[in-house]
Amino acid sequence: MTTKFFLPMIAGVLAANMVAAEDKPVLTVYTYDSFVAEWGPGPAIEAAFEATCACDLQFVAPGDAGALLSRILLEGKDTKADVVLGLDNNLTAKAAASGLFAPHAALDVTYGLPVAWNDPIFVPYDWGYFAFVYDKTKVREVPTDFTALATSDLKIAIQDPRSSSPGLGLLMWVKAAYGDKAAEIWADLADNIVTVTPGWSEAYGLFLKGEADMVLSYTTSPAYHIFAEKDDTKAAAAFSEGHYLQVEVAAKLGTTPQGDLADQFLAFVTGPEFQGVIPETNWMYPAVTPADGLPAEFEGLIQPAKALMLPAGEADALRESATEEWRAALAK
Amino acid sequence: MRVAARLPGGLALALVLALALGSLAAVLARSEGLGRVTPADWAAVRFTLLQASLSAVLSTVLAVPVARALARRRFAGRGLMIAALGAPFILPVIVAVMGILSIFGRAGALNAALAALGLPELRVYGLQGILIAHLFLNLPLAVRMILNGWAAIPPERFRLAASLDLGPRDLWRLIEYPMLCATLPGAALAIFLVCLTSFTVILMMGGGPAATTLELAIYQAFRMEFDLGHAASLAALQMALSLAVALVSLMAFNPTAFGAGTGRRADAPPHAGRLALWLDVFWLCACGLFLALPLLTVLLAGLPFLPGLGASLWMAAGRSVLVALSATVLALALSLSIALLVTALPRAAGRVIDGLAMLALTTSPLVLGTGLFLILRPHLDPVAFALPIAALVNATMAMPFCLRILMPELTTLRTDYGRLSESLGLQGLTALRLVILPRLRRSMAFAGGLSAALAAGDLGAVALFADPQYPTLPMQVYALAGAYRSNAAAGASVLLMGLSFFLFRAIDQMGHRDADA
User: Fold this and answer.
1) Is pLDDT of B218 > 60?
2) A2-127+246-298 maps to which CATH number?
3) Which regions of chain A are under pLDDT 50?
4) Which residues are CB-neighbours of B263 under 8 A, at least 6 positions away?
5) Is B38 on the interface with A (CB under 8 A)?
6) In this complex, do B203 and A198 lie within 8 Å of one another by their Cβ atoms?
7) Does A60 touch chain B (CB under 8 A)?
8) Measured between beta carbons, which residues in chain B are less than 8 angstroms from residue A206?
9) Per-range mean pLDDT, top range of A135-139, B259-263, B309-313, B378-382
10) B372 is in which domain, residue-wise?
11) What span, in angstroms and rounded, lies between the C-alpha atoms of B5 and B132?
12) How confident is the model over A233-254, as pLDDT tens digits?
């Protein structure tokens, strides 16, 4: 009974793999699931790169972004990945410390990032500011900093720093803005927090449902609603402390037998074809601003006066104590 | 029956233990030794035990009056209600939570009604929210398990009781109470173990880090700290706790033997009095509303977007059906073999085996997935075998539920028919075919339906093996929700709900062809 189901399934999968193989060199890129989804950047990027590389670009997506580094670390030196795409600045210190990644070839690009970027290993492909997103028709008095948010009656949904990247980003945001006073901010915010979700999608779902007045997301989130739903009621609140950055990066594995092809791909990542796809598929800012500017729905977005980002090593060293501080302040 | 019953059971148990312990060992072998359990972890242990015990006790205790009402009343829509009882348990957790919040949340219907009456807001986030969600997910399962127990009481017993003029009290003491003693500990155990590894519900409904469980600590160790040793020690702790609870609960398991009946199950058990009638009406309505309203909101929210779903989602649904059916066959084979082994052994030995088999449910899905990945990767491409592995893992995770459903009835069967079968020389496959399978059919069908639905809705354990080219439906639901596409995700959730429910209903029905639920 079971073999009856399995055999065609296995045969189908193997056949699909074989058709793709042919004789061209294969470049295996590990990424996260929503990158390769049919509505994500993956399909267009695969077609564009394959048109120039005489190779077969294969994406492998072992779950979300958090699962990505887990997978690479589990596989260690015999990983099949040539390139990893989708780590962020919260994870790069851990990734670099593993010794599995190799420096990329010199790139001749000018990044549009609000901070200087000259990492020898990690190539940024997009970025965004964390921000609290709200509904303009419901929230009348929009807080302009964390203190105003804490004293307001607004209810917020946030993500858990122990299980999600945005949650960790918020933790670092408060830490970067308030340093030793971070615990006080969290204690004041406690009565504003409706709940703490495992990941971004659950928190955003609660916000859309009306369970929370504001949700931790990105300054670019309203652009999706304008573009896909013709809905301009969503906005991000500009905070005077500045906004913490998330930078998503790609890197080459040290073990790859296709070093040149991997470098060719990393150069392609910062090129116009890749970068042009990012805004309206990943809903983040492209790392290199396209020559003809950003899509229209990105125009009205708030422009934070100040960008905050702790150096990767410092953020990693702070993570444990900051998480404990967060837990202690909220677990009352 | 001896050898034939023991060999498959032994093999099935070996497979389950290899998966549960092997995956933990593989994670540990890859780490740099067991990690330290921190004070925050112990706080998580305490909260985990608290919420899981409360959830299990509440679900089973409240299920008794509901199951009794269902067992002794006949009304229009009863069949539908029994079938629909399968729905919440098999919903993807995030979908269920959203449904519950539509009713009980800050912006939910209940608070809207309270506000209209000028009453204060009901705060759902916290331990109370976790219990409501766990009750929503598990109460129906408990009702079904107890209802099976009621239906397994031969109608001759009730007729005999009626002819002896026994009152409701005597009925309770002589018939119903012993049946509950046989059914409740197993049901409570299964629910306790599910809630022990609960993750999304705890975080979303918990309202903050005061509600932290071991499973979150394990997740953190894997995903944020990349500390396999810490993950392994937490997983071992979780397993030890569950095993202790499993053994205690199985010690309390007290099988009934009312003696064999004619095997017909046509009559409703008797019921007496107006008060009893009104109480039954109350329990049926309360339970019906509590379960139906959140489901309805999910349905209404997603239905408009169902027609707009792309072909890829229907393909994913097809893949999920394949995984579910394979997992069902495997789960039934595993649980039947183990149940036959347990009931063929002396009582004490049987209980130990039974407890060990429950280990499959105590393994953290993350540890199982990661361990299996580490074991299999040197030998095969995990991505190419994503779907067969998903079926295997889901079958193993569903097996303990099947075991809890099959065990009470099989134990009774052994007591009632064991000696007769032996005296007739009925052995092995012949006894299985002629005596056991026909009488287990209803339970097998229920267990099979549950396995299929569980496997169709699963996500957890197999994330590391996921193949982006061939996603299953739950993977698609999460991917859509993670990319702002909440409308499509709502539509896909309805598709997933319908699929799980259809699978459950279709398989469950096989046990009802000529029998009453």
Assistant:
1) yes
2) 3.40.190.10
3) 1-7, 9, 12-16, 18-21
4) B154, B438, B439
5) no
6) yes
7) yes
8) 101, 204
9) A135-139
10) 2-34+53-257+302-509
11) 41
12) 999 999 999 999 999 999 999 9
Q: Mean pLDDT, to the nearest integer, of B455-478?
A: 71
Residues of chain B numbered 224-263 and touching chain A (CB < 8 Å): 224, 226
SS3 A101: strand
Q: Between A and B, how many residue pairs show a Cβ–Cβ distance under 8 A?
A: 177
Instruction: Choose between B417 and A37: higher pLDDT.
Output: A37
Q: In this structure, is residue B201 part of a structural domain?
A: yes
**Partner residue opposite A198 with nearest CB, options B40, B105, B199:** B199
Q: How many domains does chain B have?
A: 1
Question: Could you tell me if residue B275 is inside a domain?
Answer: no
Contact of A128 with A284, CB cutoff 8 Å: yes
| A-interface mutation test, from B46, B216, B223, most A Cβ less than 10 A away | B223
Domain ranges of chain A: 2-127+246-298, 128-245+302-330
Top CATH class, A128-245+302-330: alpha beta
**Cα distance between residue B404 and residue B148, in whole Å:** 11
Q: Which residues of A touch B28 (CB under 8 A)?
A: none
pLDDT of residue A1: 38
Q: Do A6 and B391 touch (CB under 8 A)?
A: yes
How many CB atoms lie under 10 A from the CB of residue B23?
A: 25
Mean pLDDT, rounded, for B219-239: 87
Read off the DSSP letter of residue A254.
T
Distance (Å, rounded) from C-alpha A290 to C-alpha A195?
38
Q: Which of B40, B89, B384, B420 is nearest to B218 (CA)?
A: B40
> Tens digits of per-residue pLDDT, B106-119?
999 999 999 999 98
Q: How confident is the model at residue B209 (pLDDT cuts 50, 70, 90)?
A: confident
Residue type for A43, please?
Answer: P
Sorting pLDDT into bands at 50, 70 and 90, what band is B263?
low
- Residue B457 vs residue A235, higher pLDDT: A235
> Please, which residues 74-113 of chain A have a Cβ atom closer than 8 Å to chain B?
74-75, 94
| CA–CA distance, B248 with A112 (Å, rounded to integer) | 62
Portion 113-132 of B in contact with A at CB < 8 A: 125
Say yes or no for a CB contact (<8 Å) between A206 and B94: no
In a domain, B294, yes or no: no
Q: State the nearest Cα–Cα gap between A255 and chain B, in angstroms.
A: 17
B293 in any annotated domain:
no
How many residues are present in chain A? 332
Domain A2-127+246-298 identical in fold to domain A128-245+302-330: yes
What's residue B268's pLDDT? 58
Q: What is the mean pLDDT of chain B?
A: 83
String of b and e for B418-445 (b: at least 16 CB within 10 Å)? beebeeeebeeeebbeebbeebbbbbbb
Q: Which residues in chain B have Cβ-Cβ distances shorter than 8 Å to A198?
A: 199-200, 203-204, 216, 219
List the single residue in A13, A75, A327 with the smallest CB-CB distance to B384: A13
Query: Closest chain A residue to B463 measured between Cα atoms?
Result: A63
DSSP secondary structure string for all residues of B115-183: HHTTPPPPP-TTHHHHHHHHHHHHHHHHHHHHHHHHHTS-HHHHHHHHHTT--HHHHIIIIIHHHHHHH
Q: Which range is most confident: A16-20, B151-155, B233-237?
A: B233-237
Q: Concatenate the DSSP letters of all residues of B209-240 into one string.
A: TTS--HHHHHHHHHHTS--HHHHHHHHHHHHH
Chain B residues 64-83 within an 8 A CB cutoff of chain A = none
Q: ipTM more than 0.90?
A: no
Where residue B170 sits, what CATH number does that domain have?
1.10.3720.10
Q: What is the pLDDT of residues B3-52, one digit of tens each?
A: 555 788 889 999 888 888 998 999 988 888 888 888 888 989 999 999 99
Residue A310, both tokens:
């702790």
Q: CA of A19, closest CA in chain B: separation in Å? A: 14
